[in-house]
Amino acid sequence: MITVKLVGGAKKSFSTEKLELEKSNITIGELLDKILEIKPNNLPELDIENILIAVNGVDSSALDGKSTMIKNHDVVSIIPVIHGGASKKLLYKIGSKQILVVQIKGKDDIDVKFLDNLRVKFPKIQLQAVSSQYVLNSSHLKKILSLSIESQKNDVLLSNKLETDILMRFAISKQISTAITSAGIKPKNDFLLISIGNKTSLDSLFKELSKLSIPMFSKNNETFLKKSFNISKKQIDSVYSKNPLEEILVEKAAVLL
Predict the structure, then answer these.
(1) What distance in Å separates the CA atoms of residue 67 and residue 60, rounded to the nearest whole number?
(2) pLDDT tens-digit profile of 168-177?
(3) Is the pTM of this model over 0.70?
(4) What is the CATH code for 2-80?
């Protein structure tokens, strides 16, 4: 049995201070997948990208991060590092580009037409939607955006548009149709809306989207990404990094040419 202690805002996601799971010999990443599965839908999301995790009092960053193995009778503490709720937007400046990223809750009536309508309403903004499942975390997101922007600067985009290049790199595909089918916007599926423009336009866009946006990176996509891109444990173990999966995904995206 594993005991999970929930601290601060994490308690609000489960209405309890402690969970006990009949599990052992699983990684922190697998544990997070499990507790997100059992979290009541009517309670606030747990932003797993903005938490500290300790195993028997030891910070997981001093162990093997999300690959840290949890054994029988271990005590895992989950401590949010952002108080008052997780962020609903990310702002980046990469080179000369101002970038706003928000996560949108998937609904029946939100599909590719939603993106087309936004492009008409905000013609000065470059827009792309990427299925949330294809983004590991904020660091992965920023590295892929940097790859695409650098490719545009060097005139080696995978497509004739920066927005399309971004989608293809998250999908890790040289085929536009494949990238759209796999990692593009779909009804009912949460997605990240990536917007590139000036600050005034981006502020107006966020005001338009604020009611549709949800906390960023509330789900752990590690298992999905490993399966989608056939990334084995052997590959993961061969990469010396705090987040080997992230490094592999970025490398695959970088060598598409």
Answers:
(1) 9
(2) 999 999 999 9
(3) no
(4) 3.10.20.30
pLDDT tens digits, residue range 27-56? 988 988 888 888 888 888 787 767 888 888
Does the 90-254 domain belong in CATH 3.40.190.10?
A: no
Domain boundaries, the chain: 2-80, 90-254
CA distances in angstroms from 99 to 41, 121, 164, 204, listed in the order given: 31, 18, 15, 13
